[in-house]
Specification:
- The chain has helices at 2-17, 22-38, 45-55, 57-67, 92-100, 119-132, and strands spanning 74-81, 104-112, 115-118.
- With 136 residues, the chain is an alpha+beta fold.
- The chain has a three-stranded antiparallel sheet with strand order 1-2-3.
- Helix 1 runs antiparallel to helix 2 (22-38) and helix 4 (57-67) packs across helix 6 (119-132).
- The relative contact order is 0.19.
Length: 136
């Protein structure tokens, strides 16, 4: 399992280093999906995935994204408004972009119907869940 988690960590770090790359975000999601499969270790993969999806909203979303169903979640790049109070948390690059784009920055997000989630936050949460899992 440690090899699968290490691969997921590396893929998620690469996606975070290129925050506007939907391709790297998808690769990270697929790698995290594979790390979840490694938890089954020769057992019932579907049962393990069902249990993980039931106990982790982040992993449920990753699994649904990776299923690539036409009506399922997908990655989108869209403008996200930045409240003035959050400006201190922005990188210099995002700060400069937001000044010229009406206080908004581009983000890769998971679109699940009308709901939106930051892909990098979801991937990090899913990875942490797998690290804490008794089989991980």
């Amino acid at each position: 399992m440690s090899d699968a988690l290490s691969a997921a960590e590396a893929a998620i770090a690469a996606a975070r280093a290129a925050p506007l790359s939907a391709r790297r975000a998808m690769l990270a999601a697929l790698t995290l999906d594979a790390a979840a499969d490694a938890l089954a270790a020769g057992g019932d993969v579907l049962a393990v995935r069902a249990e993980l999806a039931q106990t982790s909203e982040a992993l449920r979303l990753v699994f649904a994204l990776c299923a690539m169903r036409p009506d399922g979640p997908r990655l989108v790049t869209e403008a996200v408004a930045v409240p003035l109070g959050d400006y201190g948390t922005l990188s210099l690059e995002d700060f400069m972009v937001s000044l010229y784009n009406g206080h908004s920055v581009q983000r890769v997000r998971i679109a699940d119907g009308e709901a939106r989630s930051d892909v990098h936050a979801v991937l990090a949460e899913g990875l942490q869940f797998l690290h804490r899992h008794p089989r991980g």
